[in-house]
Design a protein that fits this description.
alpha+beta, 4 strands, four-stranded antiparallel β-sheet, 3 helices, Histidine-containing Protein, Chain: A
Length: 89
């Protein structure tokens, strides 16, 4: 199975610098393959260079894709991070 969910970036600075590092660090805790897609770009969510290259800003829509043994937990944790924790940054 694979999980896929769209999310709007609510962090004032988008997925840059500290929020990007936190996102990658959180994604790295899971065994599943995790990708972030924006427009026509798809990057590994465990790669800081990949996440930074997306250039996701406040208000942009991204799609998180998780696949693997802990895909549901990974998805829920990353959505919570984006919607609740990083939105206050």
């Amino acid at each position: 199975m694979m999980q896929s969910k769209r999310v709007i970036i609510k962090s004032k600075v988008g997925l840059h610098a500290r929020p990007a590092a936190l996102f990658v660090q959180t994604a790295g805790k899971f065994f599943s393959d995790i990708y972030v897609k924006m427009s026509d770009k798809k990057v590994n969510a465990k790669s800081i260079m990949g996440i930074m290259a997306l250039g996701a800003s406040n208000g942009d829509e991204i799609t998180i894709i998780t696949q693997g043994e802990d895909e549901k937990e990974a998805m829920n944790t990353l959505i919570d991070l984006l919607e609740n924790k990083l939105s206050k940054e």
